[in-house]
Amino acid sequence: MNRREFVALAAGAPLLAHSVGRRQPASTASQGPRTVAARSPQGPFVCMHQISSNGFDYRASLEGYAKAGVRAVEVVLTKAREFAEKESPAAARRLLDDLGLQAVSSSNQLGIVEPSPSRAKNLDDLKWKCELARTLGADKIVAVPAMTAKPSEGDYERGVENLRAAADVAGAFDVSLLFEFSRFFTLATSLTTALMFVRSANHPHVRLMIDTYHFWIGPSKFEDLDLVRDGELAHMHFEDTPREPVRELLEQRHRALPGDGVAPLRKIVDAVKKKSYAGPLSVELFDPSYQSMDPYQLAAKVRAAVEPLLA
How many Å apart are CA 77 and CA 173, to the nearest integer? Predict the structure, then answer.
């Protein structure tokens, strides 16, 4: 298969994700019905990514978010496992429920799409992450192709096969992989390439996500959002792009609070709403000044920044 055939296949592949029903996992069914309702019928909603409070542990970050009135969280699974090893996985879930928080997604897994000598180990890691995610109530995990070398055409074909195989692993836990393109890696740097992977994989447990930081600083164009099918987008990371430094010098730590930069976030929100997106806007910040900020204060700042963009 050459590159042109690959693109054509991606463009024409049917979307299966919405034809597959969701079942209640055994690990959470015994805990009773959920009382948390993070999702809004009116559109996207505020979500805190736990990496934004990387200086705090699982409990402290969640308590701060809940105090600030945030109801959705993207759980960092290594934080959750540290807590679960001291307490239990059930206690980690109970803390979320007691605080009125919903784990809408989880983070993350590298090295399962791109060529990697550690792929077998990475797939084993994916198993415990999916099991824990499901216990916490999350049915999604972010998957980032973290390739740094220049890819070949064969890497894309193998990458689709690898993505399907990893989705089989995640699907056994009723968890879907959120395919994330990244400006800082080489295999998938744009929305169009992410669409190509998701559609070519054609798997009920492979879903599309967009990080607005990677979207705006990378090769994607605003018009690419028109290519997203109705209901195809399953998750978003939501940050701004600062005016400085120049894009070539931007790093993960330069992610800005929504509204503090130059990305057209309101237009992006409006565009994904037209595609029937009503999911989380998960704010993922790497600046140490944010990661060391009291989680309550940070979550309050995030709400103040994001909510005006949803009006």
Answer: 15
- State how far the Cα of 233 lies from the Cα of 210, in Å rounded to an integer: 8
- pLDDT 10s digits, 145-198: 999 999 999 999 999 999 999 999 999 999 999 999 999 999 999 999 999 999
Residue 273 and residue 110: Cα distance in Å, rounded?
29
End-to-end, the C-alpha distance of the chain in Å comes to: 46
Amino acid at 289: S
Residue 70: closest CA among 281, 238, 311: 281
Encoding tokens for residue 213? 């930081």
pTM: 0.88
Structure tokens, 49: 């990514």
User: Cα separations (Å) of 249 from 137, 184, 187, 218?
Assistant: 38, 11, 20, 12
Write the burial class of residue 154 (CB in 10 Å: 0-12 exposed, 13-18 middle, 19+ buried).
exposed
Distance in angstroms (rounded) separating the CA atoms of residues 57 and 61: 6
Separation of CA 231 from chain center: 16
Q: Cβ distance 162 to 114 under 8 Å? A: yes
Query: Is 192 strand, coil or helix?
Result: helix
Per DSSP, the three-state class of 138 is coil
Q: Exposed e or buried b for every residue in 93-104, given b needs 16+ CB within 10 A?
A: bebbbebebbbb
Q: Where are the domains of the chain?
A: 3-10+47-310
What is residue 285's DSSP assignment? -
Cα distances from 272 to residues 55, 81, 83, 107, 275, in angstroms, run 32, 33, 35, 22, 5
Cβ–Cβ < 8 Å for 60, 295: yes
Contact 298, 52 (CB under 8 A): yes
CATH code 3.10.580.10 for 3-10+47-310: no
